[in-house]
Write a structure and sequence with these properties.
The chain has 13 helices and 12 strands. The chain is of the alpha/beta class and about 350 residues long. The strands form 3 sheets. An 8-stranded mixed sheet has the order 5-6-2-7-1-8-9-12, with helices on both faces. Strands 3-4 form a two-stranded antiparallel sheet. The protein has a two-stranded antiparallel sheet with strand order 10-11. The structure holds adenosine-5'-diphosphate. Adenosine-5'-diphosphate binds next to helix 5 and helix 12.
Length: about 350
């Protein structure tokens, strides 16, 4: 068998299969290959970029490890992601798209759906972050098994010494940047949560006081049934539009009322509707069951004047992996369907999104 070449365009999972020590080397650089399904569609170059790293030292280390059969020394600066100074963030300049994910009520699987969107976008080699604004039940870190409290850094651009410290986002094995109140130490938590109008303050602080990388898409996981205050904040953060997650059991009228309210408050369109837990396919018989009742997805999408991204079935594996903190391992085509639909809808938006009235 010819030896696999180690170049910027070598596929990561093929490399790890052919050269077992590659996994150890990549993990030493913070590319969490074991337990990451994204690397199937990723080259070394893309993986390095997603983690904010240069690919040259990674390729050099991989080549050295293969010939020596052991781990070479790795300089600390080569494993430190290059992050952008946050000056531009106030205008949202470093995010190509900001997309809040909403639901009319809790428990419809909004957080899992946000994770699926993020994973799908990563599989398309997009750089993705999740701002977990669901302070009532912040579950994004749990889905990805993130436990370490966020670290804090000084603004590298600040010369006065007066600027507020910045959060460094947690990074999942698949290189999704995550900020969540679940990752704050008790002192930071108190400082954030009890200041000002709670939720709006948290969203704004997470948005502005974080050392985000340049991201293609920042997903914002909003609390269920989000009220006026955070929507006002979101409006000032120049979001593209919102993704609405529903499930069959939720009352269609309630969802539509919420969506109408949302559009009025936000003056931004609903860019897509996802119906989660829409049906279940029995693995033994292949029969399809609408466990929570008939679908409302088409009606909701029509009323919201938005495309239906997908009807996501109940997939026990999704729950097993995400409840075990292993969402990075989810390798389901639904991730791709959702991400492609989102990108298509974003591309179809008029530049300055027109105001849409539902009523
Ligand atoms: P929400 O954020 O709306 O409160 P979660 O995303 O936390 O809801 O989902 C609630 C529970 O349902 C979680 O245990 C999650 O793993 C599970 N779940 C959500 N969607 C699906 C699905 N399509 N298939 C299987 N389990 C799901």
């Amino acid at each position: 068998m010819p030896t696999l070449e180690i170049t910027p365009t070598t596929n990561i999972s093929e490399l790890v299969a052919a050269v077992p020590i590659a996994r150890e080397v990549l993990e030493a650089f913070g590319l969490g290959c074991s337990g990451c399904s994204v690397n199937k569609s990723e080259t070394i170059e893309q993986g390095a970029r997603a983690h904010g790293l240069r690919s040259e030292p990674i390729i050099a280390a991989l080549t050295q490890a293969r010939s020596a059969g052991r781990m070479p020394p790795i300089a600390n600066e080569d494993r430190k992601p290059a992050r952008k100074a946050p000056g531009a963030f106030r205008s949202g300049g470093s995010f190509r798209h900001v997309v809040p994910v909403m639901s009319g009520k809790g428990g419809v699987g909004k957080s899992l759906t946000t994770a699926l969107l993020a994973l799908g976008l990563r599989r398309l080699n997009k750089r993705v972050g999740i701002l977990d604004a669901d302070i009532t039940g912040p579950s994004i870190p749990r889905l990805f098994g993130l436990r370490e409290p966020l670290s804090i850094e000084r603004d590298p651009k600040d010369t006065t010494g007066q600027a507020k410290p910045l959060f460094v986002p947690a990074v999942t094995r698949s290189a999704i940047e995550v900020i969540s109140s679940n990752l704050l130490t008790p002192e930071e938590d108190t400082a954030m949560v009890w200041r000002g109008p709670i939720l709006s303050g948290v969203i704004r602080q997470f948005f502005e006081q974080t050392l985000w990388s340049d991201l293609d898409v920042l997903l914002v996981d909003l609390p269920p049934g989000t009220s006026d205050a955070p929507l006002t904040v979101l409006q000032s953060l120049s979001v593209d539009g919102v993704v609405l997650v529903t499930m069959p059991q939720a009352l269609a009228t309630m969802i539509v009322r919420k969506a109408a309210n949302l559009v009025m408050q936000l003056k931004k369109p609903v860019i897509g509707v996802i119906e989660n837990m829409s049906y279940f396919i029995a693995p033994d018989t292949g029969r399809r069951y609408e466990i929570f009742g008939p679908s409302y997805a088409d009606q909701v999408a029509t009323l919201a004047r938005a495309p239906l991204f997908a009807r996501v079935p109940i997939i026990p594996k999704l729950m097993q992996l995400s409840d075990a903190g292993r969402a990075d391992e989810i390798d389901d085509p639904i991730c791709d369907t959702l991400a492609q639909a989102l990108l298509a809808a974003l591309a179809a938006l008029p530049k300055a999104a027109a105001e849409i009235s539902l009523i």
